[in-house]
Amino acid sequence: MASMRGGQAVRQSHIKLQQLSRHSRRQFSSSPTSRGYQDTVQNLRIGKHTRVIYQGFTGRVATSNARDSIAYGTNIVGGVTPGKEGEHLGLPLLPDLRKAKEQLKPDATAVFVAAPQCGKAIEDAIEAEIPLIVAVAEHIPLHDIMRVGLRLRPGRRYIEVDV
After folding, report:
1. Domain carrying residue 57
2. Comparing C-alpha atoms, which of 108, 119, 121, 117 is closest to residue 158?
3. Is residue 7 in some structural domain?
4. Among candidates 53, 132, 59, which has minimal Cα distance to 100?
5. pLDDT confidence of 16, banded at 50, 70, 90?
6. φ/ψ of residue 91, rounded to 5
7. What is the pTM for the complete model shown?
8. Residue 16 falls within a domain, yes or no?
9. Fewer CB near the last or first residue (10 Å), C or N of the chain?
10. Cα(21)–Cα(121) distance, integer angstroms
11. Where are the beta strands (DSSP E) in 65-107?
12. Which residues does 138 contact at the CB level (< 8 Å), separation at least 6?
C-alpha cells in the first residue's frame, strides 16, 4: 500500500514537472549555448584569481562565512543585499545583482539567502550570467529546485545546492 502511494506521488511529481516546463519558456541567457562539459568546465577552475560575490551579503551566516573566506585568501570582491548599498566588511555592497555584475565583474557567486528566496536568487544569478553559482541553504522548497533546474540546459551552468 505504501509503495502504491509512493508511485502515485512520483506520477504526480512528473505531471507537475511537465506542467512547469510548459509554462516556463523564458530565456535566461543571451550568450551562445554551450554544447557540453568541455564548454563549461573552465567555470569550475577556481583559485586566487576567481572573483567571488555574496548574495545575501549582510546576513549573519554570509557575514561569518565571508570573514572566514577572506581570512583563507578567497578573492571576495563584494556582495548584494536588496535595498542596501554602501560597504560591508570593507567591500562594496550593492542593491541588486545586475549592478554587482557590471561593477564587480564576478566569476562566481555564493548564495546565502533564506530558503524561500533561494530559487529567485539563483535565477537572478543565471540571468546575470555569472559562470559559477554555489547555493548554500537548507530546506529549499522542492518546487523551487525543480523550477530552477528546468530552466537550465545541460552543460550550461553548474549549481550546487545543499538541501
Report:
1. 35-162
2. 108
3. no
4. 53
5. low
6. -120, 155
7. 0.67
8. no
9. N
10. 19
11. 76-80, 86-88, 91-94
12. 115, 162, 163
Let me know if residue 71 belongs to a domain.
Answer: yes
Q: What integer best gives the mean pLDDT of the chain?
A: 76
**Grid cell in block for residue 65:** 562565512
- Asked whether residue 79 is domain-assigned, the answer is yes
Q: Residue 19: which residues within 8 A CB-CB, separation 6 or more?
A: none
Which residue matches cell numbers 578567497? 74
Cell representation of residue 4: 502504491
What are the tens digits of pLDDT across the range 127-149?
Answer: 898 988 888 777 777 777 766 66
Residues in the chain: 163
Q: Rounded to whole angstroms, how far apart are CA atoms 149 and 159? A: 9
Three-state DSSP at 119 gives: helix
Grid coordinates representing 28? 535566461
Collapse the DSSP code of 127 into the 3-class scheme (helix H, G, I; strand E, B; otherwise coil) and give the result.
Answer: helix
Spatial separation of the C-alpha atoms in residues 105 and 92, rounded to whole Å: 12
Give the pLDDT of residue 162.
35
Question: What residues contact residue 62 under an 8 Å CB cut-off, 6+ apart?
Answer: 54, 55, 56, 79, 110, 112
Q: Which amino acid is at 98?
A: R
